[in-house]
Structure formats: C-alpha cells, structure tokens
Amino acid sequence: MLKKVMITAAISGAETTREQQPALPVTPQEMALAAKACREAGASIIHLHARDDAGNPTASVARFAQCLEAIRAVTDVVVEFTTGGAIGMSDDERLAPVAMGPEMASLDCGSVNFADEILPNSLPSMRRFATTMLEKGVKPTFECFDVGHVYNARILIAEGLVKPPYHFTFVLGVPGAMPATVEALLMMKAALPTDVELEWTGIGVGGRGSALIPPVSALMGGHARVGFEDNVYFTRGVLASSNAQLVARIADTIRAYGKEVASPDDVRARFGLR
Length: 274
Ligand code: ZN
Fold this sequence. Notes:
Bound molecules: zinc ion
Order of helices and strands: EHEEEHEHEEEHEHEHEHEEEHH
Number of strands: 14
Shape: globular
Number of helices: 9
Distance between the termini: 20 Å
Structural class: alpha/beta
Oligomer: single chain
Number of domains: 1
CATH architecture: Alpha-Beta Barrel
Radius of gyration: 17 Å
Mean pLDDT: 97
C-alpha cells in the first residue's frame, strides 16, 4: 500500500458543460493549464476526456494527442486517458486513444445505468480493453460503479490480463449505480481482493458525494479523485473557481490530518509506469 495519498484530478469529463461550470477546460491549451494548476495544487494524476472545439466529448485520437502534448509541455503530471468515453461511443472509439500509449487509462468494469442512459461493458469488451492496455504498457484503472464490477475486475486479474499492483476506483453517486455514501464505499472496499497488491481511489459524483467520498477515502487508506467531471461546486450552491481549487482543498485536508500527498513520481514508482 502506498502511504502517501494520490490525488487524481478529473478536469473535464464528458457530461459537464460550460453552462454548468464556466471554468471547464475544453481546448488542449486549457486542458494543459488546468493540469498544471492541479499539479501545483497537489494532483499527481490527470484523468482526461477530450473535447472538440464546440465543447462536445470526442474520441478523436488527434485531439487526445494534442491534449497529451500540451499537458506534457507544461507539467510532469501522470496522464490517465478515459476509455469510458461518452454515452453512445463504440468500443473502437473508446479504445482508440490508448494506442498512443498514455501512462494510465481507465477501464470500466461493468455495464451501468447512467440516469436514463446505459453504459455497456460486456466481459469480452473488458478483456479486449485490458489486453490492449497490457500490450501497450498502459496501467489500467478499474472503474467500478457497482459491487459486481469489482468482481469483474477480479476475473480480469485471474485471467492474467492485468499486472499488479492494481488500481481500483469506486465511482459512487451516478444515478442508477451505487450511491455516494460511506456504507456503499465500505461495501465496495470489502469486495477488493485481499491477497494482491493494490491501491483504491474514492470518487463521489455530485456536490454532496464529492464532499464526502474523496476525503473519507483518503483518510481510510485509499486515494482521492476530485474535479469538474465529478462535481462543479466548491460548497453548496457556490461554483468552484477552478479544478485546482478542488484539488487544493483535498490536499489541505490530507495534510491537515497528518498524511502526505503523493507526487507524480511516487505514482510512477508505485505502478511501475514508464
Ligand atoms: Zn471519466
């Protein structure tokens, strides 16, 4: 277990809009500036979704490459590409950016309702995503929206499609999936395999969820994710001024309770990233 706490900043996501959050980064340059500010505030990993010029989510390999290049030019933060993409994207689209070999990528570990929509992830799809990441030397982050998803990840582990140490995230608070409660967090954690090397990160979706799950996770031996993908508010009814403001608050909380915040190189050492 990594003693220091990794902070992931999910700076854009696929669903958040400029109307909801005027400081949402959209262009590669904006992504880079947000990533740099988050790094300076304490983030070690940037979870990246790309947007087109109109601000819509895109699976464009070129756009992901531009974002990665822009981020690389200004900061040493670890970059984790999404392969969850956006609702309606095909597996081929979601997986395409992984070909350029980012250090990390998310791997959705099961199908899930997203309010009125469905995010489909069959086990054969998950095997394909895991195999591609293994071939490209990309560290997967298991994204678990439900308890069964943790067991799907354990199937991929048992089949040797992912190398240890493993990284799990618990995404709590999506309408139709597990709620952003401590009880749900404990249930997810209890489903983790106990005989392997792993790290886990708590994600809370929505204002209340994001105020509860990341700090609780960080204080109980896990790691924390914050950012505009998960929540646009700083406090109830008050928008955050930037992704970095949310990162700074969780970093302050972690340090205030006597823990250290991990650097990008701590994350690289822990996961053996290239
Ligand atoms: Zn995402």
